[in-house]
Design brief:
Two copies of one chain form a homodimer. Chain A is of the alpha+beta class. Helix content of chain A is 53%, strand content 16%. In chain A, strands 1-3-2 form a three-stranded antiparallel sheet. In chain A, strand 2 and strand 3 form a beta hairpin. The first copy, chain A, is elongated, with a radius of gyration of 17 Å. Chain A starts with 12 loop residues before the first helix and ends in an 8-residue tail after the last helix. The interface between A and B is large, with 44 and 44 residues.
Chain lengths: 112, 112
């Protein structure tokens, strides 16, 4: 134990929230990621995904480009530089949390 | 890219929420952790911490024991077995997310 702030205290709720963390993480894997791919990989409903994309777009962490494949409308999601930086900060904080919990416990090597 | 579910999709919001993750992580470091210590280490307000403790207690992830040090009331927070298991699952999922993002990117080694 010590009294320095725990690494969870620096997490940003815009980025840490489960669905948004998934969206940002997936979007970091390619220049642009298609809406339907995110939908399937994160197991979200369309409405729920749209709502979280809206939060991320308003926070200027992603851009959304709309277009067509044949006659079908498609949306491609890309990280902005701010989005990439925000994800990097989140990942650093998560690693610090994981390392600290694992150091203090044998949690993940147990027989649960 | 692949179409298997992203590790973020298995996160449990009761455990993943920033303050609650901090509470569970700190509580895993000792048999019991005092309210004031959590308050200071997570940089929360009393009301906010009390609200999150209530969520975790109702979910049976922690127990809260009230007592006194001299005349001062004190609360000690302990993980239940279910709480310890839930934290272990969260930590495993976070490690999978971190590993996947770091594999796909040079995010955390960049010059940001």
């Amino acid at each position: 134990m010590n009294d320095v702030p725990h690494p969870s205290s620096i997490l940003d709720d815009r980025v840490h929230q489960k669905a948004r963390l998934g969206i940002l993480a997936l979007s970091s894997e390619a220049k642009a990621v298609e809406f339907g791919y995110i939908l399937k990989t994160l197991e979200l409903t369309s409405g729920n995904l749209a709502r979280h994309l809206d939060v991320l777009e308003k926070a200027e962490l992603i851009t959304i480009k709309k277009g067509f494949v044949g006659k079908r409308p498609r949306s491609w999601i890309s990280l902005t530089t701010a989005g990439r930086d925000a994800l990097a900060s989140e990942i650093r904080a998560l690693r610090a949390i994981v390392d600290r919990v694992e150091r203090a416990n044998s949690l993940t090597s147990g027989d649960d």
